[in-house]
Write a structure and sequence with these properties.
About 40% of the residues lie in helices and about 25% in strands. The protein has about 230 residues and is α/β, with parallel strands linked by helices. A 5-stranded parallel β-sheet has the order 2-1-3-6-7, with helices on both faces. A hairpin with a 4-residue loop joins strand 9 and strand 10 (about 140-145). The two termini are about 30 Å apart.
Length: about 230
Amino acid sequence: MNRILLLEDHERLARLICKGLAMAGIVADVFSRIDHAMAALQQVPYQALVIDRGVPDGDGLSLLQHLRAAGNAIPCLVLTARTELHDRVEGLDAGADDYLAKPFAMEELVARVRALMRRPVETRTLEPQCGDLTLRPADSLICCGDKCEILAQAEMQIMLLLVHRYKESVRHSALEAAGWGLSEAVTPNALDVTLHRIRRKLLAIGSQQWIVNRRGIGYALQDRKKTK
């Protein structure tokens, strides 16, 4: 799915970054503390990290070092006001894939994040396909042939996860995390309502793909013929 983790304690900057990324079809979950970010990484399969070095509970590089020591190769961009050569070298040596100094142009940040997402640990595409479906996150579209429907942000994030895990069961909690992140309160029936809307749009574009409810296990996207 097109979701990244942003470790940034400056609220206004974090909002601006989220807005810039959202315009490119990328959702960012924002955390201001290393321990909160670490907990989120254990629950959500993020495609990339953007981390600030100076956060309240330490240097953001410690998060990256912990991940690399555990064998986690998730792509990472270090975003910081520390611009000295030794700071950049330290960040890259800690396992960062890219380094961008503050202040920066939002267009450059978005381009660098998209570049990271083109070289993830697993082979993924920015316009994933399965069966007769194509997702176009940058345009908020789900398409089957020449027919397309607009997906709301939560709908797109849920579909990206279901497509990535095609035919596999995905737990209710994982779909909620994909659709709304871990910091946003979700009403008890929000997922059911959202899945209903997605199913209607699948019918509208004539797709043979369908979201099935595997009771007690989760939900899965699979060929409609196999649901009968």
